[in-house]
Amino acid sequence: MSGGWSFTGLAGPADTRFGTVRRFAELDSTNRYLLDLARAGAPEGAVAVADYQSAGRGRLGRRWEAPPGSNLLASVLLRPVLAVEELHLCTVAVALAAADACGRGAGVTPELKWPNDLMVGGRKLGGILAEAIPAEASPAGSPLGPAVVVGLGLNVRWPPPDTAPERSPGEGPDEVAAAATSLWRETGVEHDPLAVLGLVLTGLEGRLVDLGDREGRRRLAGEYRRRCGTVGKTVRVSLAGEAFTGTATDITLEGHLVVDVGACFRTVAAGDVVHLRDPG
């Protein structure tokens, strides 16, 4: 199941459901690893973190790669009791926890871009990829139900500040560095990715409690709405087989994006969103 990858067990934050954090020097994908654990019947709270991912990816199959040890590359296994249309709230919970961790650990306050990005000054600081597997994928007779694995890629030590010495060739394409930022770039301080992970998991615990009841989910959606930089923007939404432009006006209680396209309002549960410059 582990594919021969070896890890070191680290203690998760106290008073959380995250017991042992599995730390890998190298792994193909932290999401893939936890999806395998979930299919084998692992309970909620498993965490995998890697110094380097050889097959890390983001939404729509995009690659997420950085020099080894530079950034936070981690995934968590959740087993929320949610309707299918509410599963995006798992991404919401991790996004909020990650944004808080950046504030608490580095004094950086990211803007949240729907559906899954953390942004600072128009540059990408982090991204989230959630993958669900149905209850029937668990071992026969397992009472665990469906699972959601949420992966977080957060730029901690890469790309470097604009004034820092350039890294060696091959350590990251220039076009990626130009469109991205990091806690180091924003603060001038090289933070520890594992320390940031501890803050993320601590902040995530309370939000997972909120996922368990309707009022808690309402709080999560409201907090995300307040911190979402997509709301109020003119956006282009790309879906399978179509694309449209409109004004993002709201976030639903399920964490979906509401877009005013003129003739009507469209609710987007999943899609690729680009912020457009407003006329004038």
How would you explain this protein's 3D organization?
There is one protein chain. The chain is α+β, with helices and mostly antiparallel strands. The protein has two domains: 7-227, BirA Bifunctional Protein, domain 2; 234-276, SH3 type barrels, CATH 2.30.30.100. It contains six helices and 13 strands. It has helices at 30-39, 88-106, 174-179, 183-187, 193-211, 214-227, and strands at 7-11, 20-24, 47-50, 72-78, 111-113, 117-120, 123-133, 147-154, 234-239, 242-251, 257-260, 265-268, 272-276. The strands form two sheets. The chain has an eight-stranded mixed β-sheet with strand order 1-2-3-4-8-7-6-5, sandwiched between helices. The protein has a five-stranded antiparallel β-sheet with strand order 12-11-10-9-13. Helix 5 (193-211) crosses helix 6.
Task: List the helices and strands in order.
Answer: EEHEEHEEEEHHHHEEEEE
Cross-sheet strand order for the largest sheet: 1-2-3-4-8-7-6-5
Top CATH class of the largest domain: Alpha Beta
Portion in helices: 25-40%
Shape: globular
Shape-level CATH architecture of the largest domain: 2-Layer Sandwich
CATH topology (level 3) name of the largest domain:
BirA Bifunctional Protein, domain 2
Structural class: alpha+beta
For the sheet with most strands, the description reads:
8 strands, mixed
What is the typical, i.e. mean, pLDDT?
Answer: 90
- DSSP strand content: 25-35%
| Tally of contiguous helical segments | 6
| CATH evolutionary superfamily of the largest domain | Bira Bifunctional Protein, Domain 2
Cα distance spanning the termini: 55 Å
How many distinct folded domains?
A: 2
- Runs with pLDDT <50, length 5+? 167-173
Question: What would you report as the Rg, rounded to the nearest angstrom?
Answer: 18 Å
